[in-house]
Design goal:
This protein has 156 residues and is mainly beta. It has three helices and twelve strands, in the order E-E-E-H-E-H-E-E-H-E-E-E-E-E-E. A hairpin with a 4-residue loop joins strand 2 and strand 3.
Length: 156
């Protein structure tokens, strides 16, 4: 999934990492002839890349960034109380992840952009990737809630 670069930092060994809008960090090394990224070498070059897109393989795998914290939770929904908006495509804001937790029953979690159609149950959480349209379909009687996560320093 393509994500814009929002900044840069260095890992513990001094290698540059691109910070992406989803909250993930990705190494961006200049290692010719295997990887040719001369813009990585200077701060000016890195700054010119802010806003450019980079493929985030961790988003493709529905991996929530390390260190994200919960900040909000929905009430428990049932097949009778689930909002209509959750049954049609919707998305979270940039940098906002979520976990769908099923207490009883099952639901389908569909994310067309990532070609995902997953059964969510008490044994299998649903992970919501920021800014990616998705929806749920209840499979009979069910009880579930959604908990939202953000970076610790992010104000929402």
């Amino acid at each position: 999934m393509e994500r814009p670069i929002t900044g840069f930092d260095l890992d513990s060994e001094g290698d540059p990492r691109a910070l992406l809008s989803c909250g993930h960090a990705q190494h961006v090394r200049h290692n010719p002839p295997f990887i040719n990224r001369p813009w990585v070498i200077t701060e000016e070059g890195r700054n010119e890349m802010i806003g450019k897109m980079l493929n985030c393989v961790r988003c493709d795998k529905f991996e929530m960034p390390d260190g994200f914290i919960p900040y909000k939770r929905t009430p428990v929904f049932t097949e009778e109380s689930v909002p209509a908006a959750l049954r049609k495509d919707h998305s979270t804001k940039a940098g906002v992840w979520a976990k769908i937790t099923v207490l009883e029953g099952k639901l389908r979690y569909r994310v067309a952009a990532l070609n995902a159609d997953t059964e969510v149950s008490a044994d299998n959480l649903g992970i919501v990737v920021p800014e990616v349209p998705h929806h749920v379909e209840l499979q009979g009687a069910a009880r579930f809630f959604v908990e939202f996560y953000r970076a610790p320093d992010q104000n929402l």
